[in-house]
Specification:
Blueprint lengths: L2 E4 L4 H6 L1 H10 L4 E4 L4 H7 L5 E3 L11 E4 L4 H9 L4 E4 L11 E2 L10 H9 L21 E5 L13 H8 L3 E5 L4 H9 L4 E4 L3 H8 L2 E7 L2 H8 L4 E5 L4 H4 L8 E5 L18 H4 L3 H11 L3
Parallel strand pairs: 1-2, 1-4, 2-3, 4-5, 5-6, 7-8, 7-10, 8-9, 10-11, 11-12
Helix pairs in contact: 2-5, 6-12
Length: 297
């Protein structure tokens, strides 16, 4: 089977899909991966022997006869049709059902872990999901506690207590993020006398995380990456739910912190209350204690 797998667009989702993709590659060693530019480096790093194409491009005269969609968008299915792939399998929705030759119906359930959604799609091609081996990387930087204080999803996922936690820990901390987050991270890190690193490549970020004795952050791609690398990780949940998107453990302890209020999880990008109640009830001292429990000694 000349199979092409269209993988999720976001880093966190991409990591939760790794067991499914690994099962597919194990079942079909000649399968290719179709990924957007921001997550393609992840798949090239983890599946170094696999051909990874940058979506939406495919080489002319490509060999693929079947497309398996781990994404839910209309554009993913349409790109497959335009590429001349005749067999397209995926979940219905977003108006794309007429473009699918095989429909995989999976109930929407945010009380089940999101990785199981990808696993169920992979089972459509008789794949057995399994976490892939960690990539071979070289450790970079000094021992520290890594902090991911941002979240591209929206402010409803961004707890503002990381500076206080970093001060309480009294250990070197590094705030990581994108270039666009640098101003916010510098303000947060500056309150704790911590360092800031932005604009790293994915491989550089991974190599730095290998030197982290613990990782703390919002429900975002960075904490999923850290957990995949086996780092002890503490994740703050506000508008989202650990039942759905807690990072998968892969050799390191993962602890979730939630604010137990009636309106959480709401899965909103921006809290209608402006100041999320679910974050107000999270005590930085408790979070610092959880980091101490999780970190390597």
């Amino acid at each position: 089977m000349s199979l092409l797998v269209r993988v999720p667009n976001w880093l966190g989702d991409g990591i939760m899909a790794l067991p499914a993709v690994n099962g597919i590659i194990s079942r079909y060693p000649d399968a290719g991966i179709w990924a957007v530019k921001r997550v393609a480096p992840l798949y090239r790093m983890v599946f170094s022997n696999c051909q990874v194409h940058t979506f939406p491009e495919l080489p002319s005269g490509h060999r693929y006869k079947k497309l398996l969609l781990l994404t839910s968008s209309f554009s993913s299915a349409l790109a497959g049709v335009r590429a001349g792939i005749r067999q397209i399998t995926g979940t219905p929705g977003d108006g794309r059902t007429p473009l699918l030759t095989t429909v995989r119906r999976i109930p929407e359930d945010r009380t089940r872990h999101h990785s199981l959604h990808y696993d169920a799609i992979a089972e459509a091609v008789d794949a057995l999901p399994e976490m892939p081996e960690k990539p071979q990387l070289t450790r970079a930087g000094e021992k520290h506690i890594a902090v991911f204080a941002g979240a591209r999803y929206g402010e409803a996922k961004m707890w503002k207590g990381f500076a206080e936690v970093a001060s309480l820990l009294e250990k070197p901390c590094v705030f990581y993020g994108t270039v666009s987050e640098r101003e916010y991270l510098e303000e947060q890190a500056g309150r704790a006398g911590a360092a800031v690193k932005t604009g790293l490549t994915l491989r550089e970020l991974c190599e730095n995380l290998l030197s982290a004795s613990a990782v703390i952050g919002n429900d975002s791609g960075g904490v999923h990456l850290a957990a995949f690398l086996g780092r002890p990780t503490v994740v703050i949940f506000g508008s989202t739910s650990p039942a759905w998107t807690v990072p998968l453990e892969n050799g390191g302890k993962v602890l979730a912190v939630t604010g137990s209020v009636e309106c959480s999880p709401c899965f909103q990008r921006i809290c209608p209350l402006k100041e999320p109640e679910c974050f107000k009830v999270i005590d930085p001292r408790l979070v610092a204690d959880m980091v101490r429990r999780a970190q390597d000694e």
